[in-house]
Amino acid sequence: MSVRHFTRRDFLQAGGLVACGTAALGAQDALAFASEKGDSTGASGDNSLGIIDALAGRKTLHGLEADQYDPDAPVTDEELQAILTAGFSAPSAVAQQTLEFVVVTDRNAMLPIIDHNENANELKTCPMVIVLVEHDADGGHPRFYQYDSGIAAMAMVAQATALGLCTCIVSMKQTDDSNATIYYDSIGLAQGSDEYHPQLMVTLGHPAVDAVTGASVDNYDEARIHDQTIGA
Question: Does residue 135 lie within any of the structural domains?
Answer without folding.
Answer: yes
